[in-house]
Design brief:
Helix content: 55-70%
Number of helices: 23
Number of strands: 7
Structural class: mainly alpha
Strand content: under 5%
Radius of gyration: 27 Å
Distance between the termini: 102 Å
Largest sheet: 5 strands, mixed
Strand order of the largest sheet: 4-3-5-7-6
Order of helices and strands: HHHHHHHHHHHHHHHHHHHHEEHEEHEHEE
Shape: globular
């Protein structure tokens, strides 16, 4: 018969194989049994107190490698499914993906973002683009290879978060669904994938109790795109200063971020120059651009919550239903998680942080909402513990993603690759219009006024010296240069495909084309030449 103080036997200890399921509460109970009552020995009390306040990473399970491997395989499958759509001809010639290639052309011409041309992102994104395209080339397949690499970082970050949350099958299912969202929406430019990879891996470190590493990654995200990363960095500094006992420990937690920021800024200054680095690190151009696109709340309603002409099928057949329900659950769950924040629980802290970030994005700088979907997913799964709610979110996301799968299948049926068109995938009608433009223009050099990289397609042509032809992005000096180039060019090609009201609705563009005649008006291109008969209706 055992009497006196409880003893710790070897049979009571968890073996290594059962460690992933060994929770922090079980570890605490075992330690209490092993050490006896705290009041029997002050030394034991101090040791137990140190254990209970240790970083959460010590008590959380390590990410489950098979789950990570499965997520990567599923992500590769979705990337293959959507490849023809990601490499579509219009996206590279007339839209965002082509703007990424255009950025590299401008940088190679020694033009500086924020100084010589408007640029809405941070200096680190320009540096990564310059290095990346310098290594793999300036084509559609090269761009998508870089996109795949950055999507891999986002997938790993989300999988790490779900593994730390111990969400079992619901977390794994959601992580697998999100791989499609990542590879489909990060193809527009390198900035989206790079920022997402930094933020999601920062959240994973935050959840492990490594706020110092999380802050270093958040600082990198801020230098990639000066918006969400800035806010997350500020929140992490708040959490660090709230938790640490003194200045020495505070500096120890802040030092990795300071070193990371110093090295990153040094690289940016070396490649872009001090003035360009300073101007792009401050989100002034991005704020002007989003203001020019209309009120933030109006964009939220018209592009996501309640677009005109939709019915209930819209909320079930797209990710809008998941976004709306997830937002409501995140806000309500974060309010309940505030007590856990006071108790120094990293999971609750991350949930509240994601709620603040998500609400700031919705109200302050709402834009392409798909790029921050990972933050919403992590935040909801941090604060929602009931399996029924989690499975409901997974079901809505599954139904909402089916249209993306069908679109990927249509891409394989409708598009074929063309090595002569930057390696893009082209529909027959698009190839026919390119041939028609070449027939009308002949051997004359063309000037392109459009977002994208059309000058890479037509030899002898040239485009504007602006990165993105959109309100609030280009400066008055850029506008004057574009107007002068149009007046002096014998052939001007304009595209209204992705510009809403259209470039041709701008007064200064119409005035610059006063002495030109429209000779072609197609789905992709509108061609104006000097001294030619007008196009027939």
């Amino acid at each position: 018969m055992h009497t006196g103080r409880p003893r710790y036997g070897k049979d009571d200890a968890p073996d290594r194989e059962s460690w992933p399921s060994y929770t922090s509460q079980q570890a605490s109970d075992t330690l209490v049994v092993a050490m006896g009552r705290m009041d029997e020995c002050p030394a034991r009390a101090r040791l137990l107190s140190a254990f209970m306040h240790a970083p959460a990473a010590a008590s959380l399970p390590r990410p489950f490698s098979p789950s990570l491997l499965l997520a990567l395989l599923v992500g590769a499958a979705f990337f293959a499914l959507h490849y023809p759509t990601l490499a579509s001809f219009p996206d590279f010639i007339l839209a965002d993906a082509g703007a990424s290639l255009k950025l590299d052309v401008l940088l190679a011409s020694e033009l500086r973002p924020g100084v010589d041309f408007g640029y809405t992102y941070g200096p680190l994104s320009a540096v990564v683009s310059r290095i990346g395209y310098g290594l793999v080339g300036r084509t559609a397949p090269a761009h998508l290879a870089l996109v795949a690499l950055l999507s891999l970082g986002s997938i790993l970050g989300l999988a790490r978060c779900m593994a730390r949350l111990e969400t079992n099958w619901t977390g794994l299912a959601m992580a697998l669904l999100c791989t499609q969202f990542f590879v489909r929406n990060f193809g527009f430019n390198l900035t989206y994938g790079l920022e997402s990879a930094c933020l999601l891996n920062a959240l994973a470190c935050h959840m492990e109790g490594r706020r110092d590493r999380a802050l270093a990654l958040a600082v990198l995200a801020a230098l990639v795109k000066p918006s969400m990363g800035i806010l997350y960095s500020a929140l992490l500094v708040f959490w660090i200063l709230r938790r640490v006992p003194g200045l020495r420990e505070a500096w120890r937690q802040l030092r990795p971020a300071v070193v990371t920021a110093t090295l990153a800024l040094t690289a940016c200054v070396a490649i872009l120059g001090f003035q360009s680095t300073l101007r792009t690190a401050i989100p002034l151009v991005g704020a002007v651009h989003y203001s020019a696109r209309g009120a933030r709340f109006t964009r939220l309603i018209t592009t996501l919550v309640a677009p005109s002409g939709v019915n209930f099928k819209y909320y079930l057949g797209t990710l809008a239903g998941f976004w709306i329900l997830g937002t409501a659950l995140l806000v309500l769950g974060a309010a309940r998680a505030l007590s856990g924040v006071r108790g120094n629980q990293p999971r609750a802290e991350v949930g509240v942080t994601c709620a603040v970030l998500h609400l700031a994005f919705t109200t302050l700088f709402f834009g392409p909402w798909q790029t921050y979907l990972g933050l919403l997913v992590v935040g909801v799964f941090c604060v929602v513990e009931r399996g029924a709610f989690r499975w409901a979110l997974v079901a809505i996301a599954l139904v909402g993603s089916t249209e993306m799968v069908r679109a990927g299948i249509r891409g394989w049926k409708e598009r074929t690759p063309d090595a002569h068109l930057l390696g893009t995938w082209v529909r027959p009608a698009e190839r026919q219009e390119v041939n028609e433009v070449l027939r009308v223009v002949g051997s004359q050099p063309m000037y392109f006024l459009t977002t994208g990289f059309p000058e890479g397609l037509f030899p002898g042509s040239h485009g504007s010296r602006s990165w993105f032809v959109a309100p609030g992005v280009f400066s008055p000096a850029e506008q004057e240069a574009m107007s002068r180039d149009m007046r002096t060019s014998p052939v001007v090609v304009v595209s209204d495909l992705y510009q809403g009201a259209g470039i041709l609705q701008w007064d200064w563009v119409r005035q610059s084309l006063t002495h030109h005649t429209r000779v072609h008006s197609g789905e992709l291109f509108t061609v104006f030449v000097t001294g030619a008969p007008p196009v027939r209706p």
